[in-house]
From TrEMBL, chain A:
Family per record: Belongs to the binding-protein-dependent transport system permease family.
SUPFAM superfamilies: MetI-like
Keywords, in A-Z order: Cell membrane, Membrane, Peptide transport, Protein transport, Transmembrane, Transmembrane helix, Transport
GO cellular component: plasma membrane
Membrane topology summary: Multi-pass membrane protein
Primary site of residence: membrane
Lineage: Bacteria, Pseudomonadati, Pseudomonadota, Alphaproteobacteria, Hyphomicrobiales
InterPro entries recorded: BP-dependent_transpt_permease, MetI-like, MetI-like_sf, OppC_N
Ranges of residues in domain ABC transmembrane type-1: 91-280
Species of origin: Devosia oryzisoli
Protein name: ABC transporter permease
Compartments in which it is found: Cell membrane
Listed transmembrane segments: 29-50, 93-119, 126-146, 152-173, 213-235, 256-279
One GO term of the biological process aspect: peptide transport
TrEMBL record, chain B:
TM stretches of this protein: none
Protein name, entry field: ABC transporter ATP-binding protein
UniProt xrefs under NCBIfam families: PRK10419.1 (NF007739), PRK11308.1 (NF008453)
Localization per Swiss-Prot or TrEMBL: Cell inner membrane
One BP annotation, GO: transmembrane transport
Keyword Cell membrane appears in the UniProt entry: yes
Main localization (coarse): membrane
Length: 294, 584
C-alpha cells in the first residue's frame, strides 16, 4: 500500500487548561471574587506599609470610640486603636488560617482519598466510615469542646479546621481516582508491572489536580468561618492579636451607639468569605471535565 | 423535483477566538426512492451535512447555503413549527448508538406510540397497535412483549431494530442512517443492513447512508459521495467508485480494503511462546431473593486452550461477549483466571506473585482498543513511551528520553511530537504511541486487543501495516483479538473462533476461510460485508438455537473419542479442531 504522510505535525490544538481558563474568564462573579481575594491577600502581606499605626498600639486613647473620619477611616475602637489598621491586620489571621488549614486538609485528604478510590473494598469501607463520623458531628460543637480543652490559640484552630476540612477533599479525590483507575492507561501500567504506589503517585494523583485545587480553595472559607466563630465565642485566637471574630464580638456590645465597631469587621469577614467562595465555585465549574467546551 | 437538494452548503463552528470550517461548499441531491452513500473518515463533515439538512446543529454553528431544500421546503428559512413537522415526516434519522437514542425510563412501546401521536391524531391504543405492527415489520419476533420492555432489556441489535421501527413510524420520505452499524457485531451488522434495505424497498423511501466503512456502502447504496475534510472528493454510481475510482483519496480508501501481508515465518518445532491451558473465568453473581442472597456463577470463559507459537500471529475472533477480551486480559494476568494455566516458554505464570511476575511483564505486553483512554492525559508523549523504562529502572533519564524519541520515529511520528500531550493527537497517532510504549522493552509476546476497531479505514490499514512490520522485525508472537474478519484474513497465521466463552473452531487462517466447519464460524464468515458491490448477496442468518442445533455430529469411529452428550473439540485435520458432539 502507498506510504501516506502520517507524520504531518497536527496543528497545535488548545489544551484543556486553555479551555478551563476561557470558561473561568467568562464567569464574571468568579473573576470578581478572584480579584477581591488577590487584593485582600496583597493587603494582608503589605499591612505595615498601608496602615498608619501599629495594630496593638493604643495611640489614640483620647479619641476612643471616635466615628470614621479622614484621619481614622474606620474610626477608633474602645481601647484607642486605629480600627482600619486592626481590620487590615485581621485579614492576616483570617487568610493565613484559611490557607494553612486548607493546605493541611489537602495533605490529609489526598492520600486517604486516593487509597479509598484505588483499593476500594475494605480500605474504602473504613475510610468512608471515618468520613461519616466527621460529617455527623457538628464541627462547631466539636471545635468548641476541643477549643475549651486546649485553651484555643492559633495552632488549635488550624488543627480543628483541617480536621473537618479534609473530608471534602478526600471525597473529591476518591471520586476522581475511582473514575480513572478503570482507564486503560492504568491497565497498561499494571501490564508493565508497575506497583500500586507508582500508579497512584504517577498517574492517579496528577490526574486529580483539578478536584484537589477545587477542594483546597473551597476549604479556605470554611476554615475562616470556623476561626471567626471561635474567636467570637472567645475561645479562638486570644487578644490583643486582631482577628475579625474577636472584633465582631466586642463590637456587639457597642452596636447601638457605635455602629462602626460591629459593621466593619462583619463586612470584612463577609466580603472575604464571599470572594473566596465565588472564586472556588468558578474554579470548580472551569475545571469540571464534563463541561469541556469543545 | 429532487427530494433533497443541497447547493454550496457551508457549515462553520464558532469557538473561543476563532471558527472551524466543518463543511466547505458541498452540493448534492437525492431523488425519491434513491439510495445515496456518504463515505469519509471521522471529521470529514458527513454527519454535520445531514444534521444541517434537518437543522439539528447546535447554536454555535453557522450554516450558509445557496439552496438547502428538503421535500420542497427551504430549511434555512422555515419556521420552527414547520421544521418540527418536517423532521420525521420528510426525513427520519437513525443513529450509531441506539442505547442513547432511547429514553431509558420509558418503554419501547410508549416511545414509539408517542412519536406516532406527535405526528398524527390517533388514539393511544391505535398508536400502540401500529407500533406493534412496525416492530413486526422490522422482524422483531416477540413484538407484543418488546412493547412493554425498557431499552436496557434489549440487546444492541434489537434496539437498533426498534430505532428503525420508530423512524418508520412517521412514514418518512428519506431515511438518514448515521453509522447505524458501527457499534454492532459483524453478524448483527449484516442483519441490520439487510433490514434497512428491505424496509427501504417496502416503504419506497430514499436512503442516505453515512458511514466510514466501504463494505457497508457496497452492500446498500446505488450512488456514493466521497467526502474528505469538508469537501466532496468524488461522486458517482457505486460500481464506478469501486471499479474506476478517479480521486486519490478514493483510491487510498479502496486500497485499505485489500491490504495483503507476507505470512510470518514461525518455527514449527520450537516450544510455543504462550500457551493457555484450560483457562476459565467465572464471575460470581449475587441475586437478592427476599431476605436471602443467592450466588450464581456466570462463565465468561470456559476451558479455553490456545497455543501461540513463536513469531506467529494468532487471531481470536468472536462477537462481543464471547470472552475473547477476557481471555486476552487473563493471558496478561490483568484479570485473574478462575482455573487453568498460562505457560510462557513452558513456565506456568498463573499463580506468580506481582514481584515474581516482573521479569515476565517485560516479555509480554498489551495494546488496547481505546487509544483515548490508553494514554495518560497529564504526561507528554516522551514520558508515556519511556514509562516502561522507568518502571523497570532501565537507563538514565537522558537515555530513556533518547530511546523514547527513537521509538517515536520508529512508529512513524516526528521527534518534535515528544513534548506534546495525548489530546493533541488523532486516534491513529495515539495508537502509534500506545504501540511504542508496548514495544519499547522489546517483549516477545504482544496481545493486541482490537487495536484498530475505533479507527478510520485508511488509518486502520496504516496501524495494521505498522504492527505487521514491527512483528516481523522484532520476531513478536502476537495474539490478535478482533471481530474484523477482513483484517484477520490478511494479517494472521491461524484463527481461533470463540463463541459464548468457548473455542468452537481453530485452524490455520487459509483453511478456516476456505473450509469452515462450525455453524457459528460459517455465520461469521457469511456476515463479512462485501468488498465490491458485485459481490452483494442475500444472506441467511442463524439464531443461537439454530447454531447449537447445527453443531457437527461425529461418530466414535471418526474421532476415536468417547461419546459424550456435550460438544467437545475434535481434531479433523492437522491444526484444525472443531467443536462437535461425539455420538456412538
Amino acid at each position: 500500500m502507498t506510504d501516506l504522510p502520517v507524520d504531518l505535525p497536527p496543528p497545535r490544538t488548545r489544551g484543556p487548561i486553555w479551555f478551563a481558563w476561557q470558561r473561568f474568564r467568562s464567569n464574571k462573579a468568579a473573576v470578581g471574587g478572584g480579584i477581591v481575594l488577590a487584593i485582600l491577600i496583597l493587603m494582608a502581606i503589605f499591612a505595615p506599609l498601608i496602615t498608619p499605626a501599629p495594630p496593638e498600639g493604643q495611640l489614640f486613647l483620647t479619641e476612643a470610640l471616635a466615628f470614621p473620619s479622614p484621619a481614622h477611616w474606620f474610626g477608633v475602637d474602645n481601647l484607642g486603636r486605629d480600627f482600619y489598621t486592626r481590620i487590615v491586620y485581621g485579614a492576616r489571621v483570617s487568610l493565613s488560617i484559611g490557607f494553612i488549614a486548607a493546605a493541611f486538609s489537602v495533605v490529609i485528604g489526598i492520600p486517604l482519598g486516593a487509597l479509598a478510590g484505588y483499593f476500594g473494598g475494605r480500605t474504602d469501607w473504613i475510610i468512608m466510615r471515618v468520613i461519616e463520623l466527621f460529617s455527623v458531628v457538628p464541627p462547631l460543637l466539636a471545635a468548641m469542646l476541643l477549643g475549651t480543652l486546649t485553651r484555643g490559640g492559633y495552632t488549635t484552630i488550624v488543627f480543628i479546621a483541617a480536621l473537618f476540612g479534609w473530608v471534602q477533599v478526600c471525597l473529591l479525590v476518591r471520586a476522581q481516582v475511582k473514575a480513572f483507575r478503570e482507564k486503560e492507561f492504568v491497565r497498561a501500567a499494571q501490564a508493565l508491572g508497575a506497583s500500586s504506589w507508582y500508579i497512584i503517585w504517577r498517574h492517579l494523583i496528577p490526574n486529580s489536580v483539578s478536584p484537589i485545587i477545587v477542594g483546597f480553595v473551597l476549604a479556605i472559607p470554611l476554615a475562616m468561618m470556623l476561626e471567626a466563630s471561635l474567636s467570637f465565642l472567645g475561645i479562638g485566637v486570644p487578644p490583643p492579636t486582631p482577628t475579625w471574630g474577636q472584633m465582631i464580638s466586642e463590637g456587639i456590645d457597642y452596636m447601638f451607639f457605635y455602629w462602626h465597631l460591629a459593621l466593619f469587621p462583619t463586612a470584612a469577614l463577609a466580603i472575604t468569605v464571599l470572594a473566596t467562595s465565588l472564586f472556588g465555585d468558578g474554579l470548580r465549574d472551569a475545571l469540571d471535565p464534563t463541561l469541556k467546551g469543545r | 423535483m429532487p427530494l433533497v437538494e443541497i447547493q454550496d452548503l457551508k457549515v462553520r463552528f464558532r469557538q473561543y477566538g476563532g471558527t472551524i470550517e466543518a463543511v466547505r461548499k458541498i452540493s448534492f441531491s437525492l431523488d425519491a426512492g434513491e439510495s445515496l452513500g456518504i463515505v469519509g473518515e471521522s471529521g470529514s463533515g458527513k454527519s454535520v451535512s445531514c444534521a444541517a439538512l434537518l437543522r439539528l446543529l447546535p447554536a454555535t454553528a453557522d450554516v450558509t447555503a445557496a439552496k438547502l431544500m428538503l421535500d420542497d421546503v427551504d430549511v434555512l428559512s422555515a419556521r420552527k413549527g414547520d421544521m418540527e413537522r418536517l423532521r420525521g415526516r420528510a426525513a427520519a434519522m437513525i443513529f450509531q448508538d441506539p442505547m442513547s437514542a432511547f429514553d431509558p425510563v420509558f418503554t419501547i412501546g410508549h416511545q414509539i406510540s408517542e412519536t406516532i401521536r406527535a405526528h398524527r391524531t390517533v388514539t393511544k391504543s391505535a398508536a400502540l397497535k401500529e407500533a406493534r405492527e412496525l416492530l413486526e415489520r422490522v422482524e422483531i419476533k416477540n413484538a407484543a412483549d418488546v412493547l412493554a420492555y425498557y431499552p436496557h432489556q434489549l440487546s444492541g441489535g434489537m434496539l437498533q431494530r426498534a430505532m428503525i421501527a420508530m423512524a418508520l413510524s412517521c412514514r418518512p420520505k428519506v431515511l438518514i442512517a448515521d453509522e447505524p452499524t458501527t457499534a454492532l457485531d459483524v453478524t448483527i451488522q449484516a442483519q441490520i443492513l439487510q433490514l434497512i434495505k428491505k424496509v427501504q424497498a417496502e416503504f419506497g423511501m430514499a436512503l442516505i447512508m453515512i458511514t466510514h466503512d466501504l463494505g457497508v456502502i457496497a452492500e446498500t447504496v446505488d450512488r456514493v459521495l466521497v467526502m474528505y475534510n469538508g469537501e466532496v472528493m468524488e461522486e458517482g454510481p457505486v460500481a464506478q467508485i469501486f471499479d474506476a475510482p478517479r480521486h486519490d483519496y478514493t483510491k487510498r480508501l479502496l486500497a485499505s480494503l485489500h491490504t495483503k501481508f507476507e505470512p510470518s515465518r514461525g518455527d514449527a518445532d520450537a516450544a510455543p511462546a504462550l500457551q493457555l491451558r484450560g483457562l476459565s473465568k467465572s464471575f460470581r453473581i449475587r441475586r437478592r431473593r427476599g431476605l436471602f442472597t443467592e450466588y450464581g456463577a456466570f462463565d465468561a470463559v470456559r476451558d479455553v486452550d490456545i497455543t501461540l507459537p513463536h513469531n506467529r500471529i494468532v487471531a481470536v475472533v468472536g462477537e462481543s461477549g464471547s470472552g475473547k477480551t477476557t481471555t486476552g486480559l487473563m493471558a496478561m494476568r490483568l484479570t485473574e483466571a478462575s482455573a487453568g494455566e498460562i505457560l510462557v516458554d513452558g513456565k506456568d505464570i498463573s499463580s506468580l506473585s506481582p514481584e515474581a511476575m516482573r521479569p515476565y511483564r517485560k516479555q509480554m505486553q498489551i495494546v488496547f482498543q481505546d487509544s483515548y483512554s490508553a494514554l495518560d492525559p497529564m504526561m507528554t508523549l516522551t514520558e508515556i513511551i519511556a514509562e516502561p523504562l522507568v518502571i523497570h529502572r532501565i537507563g538514565t533519564p537522558r537515555e530513556r528520553t533518547e530511546k523514547a524519541l527513537a521509538w517515536l520515529e520508529r512508529v512513524g511520528l516526528d521527534r518534535s511530537f515528544g513534548s506534546r500531550y495525548a489530546h493533541e493527537l488523532s486516534g491513529g497517532q495515539r495508537q502509534r504511541v500506545a504501540i511504542a510504549r508496548a514495544l519499547i522493552l522489546e517483549p516477545k509476546i504482544l496481545v493486541a486487543d482490537e487495536p484498530t476497531s475505533a479507527l478510520d479505514v485508511t488509518v486502520k490499514a496504516q496501524i495494521i501495516t505498522l504492527l505487521k512490520d514491527l512483528q516481523a522485525e522484532l520476531g513478536l508472537s502476537m495474539l490478535f483479538i478482533s471481530h474484523d474478519l477482513s483484517t484477520v484474513k490478511s494479517l494472521t497465521d491461524s484463527v481461533v473462533v470463540m463463541y459464548r466463552g468457548r473455542v468452537v473452531e481453530e485452524a490455520p487462517t487459509e483453511r478456516i476461510f476456505a473450509d469452515p466447519r462450525h455453524p457459528y464460524t460459517r455465520a461469521l464468515l457469511d456476515a463479512v460485508p462485501a468488498t465490491n458491490p458485485r459481490d452483494k448477496r442475500e444472506r441467511s442468518f442463524l439464531s443461537a438455537e439454530e447454531i447449537s442445533a447445527a453443531t457437527p455430529r461425529m461418530t466414535v469411529i471418526q474421532t476415536g473419542l468417547a461419546p459424550h452428550p456435550d460438544p467437545q473439540l475434535v481434531t479433523i485435520a492437522p491444526g484444525h479442531r472443531v467443536e462437535a458432539i461425539v455420538t456412538a
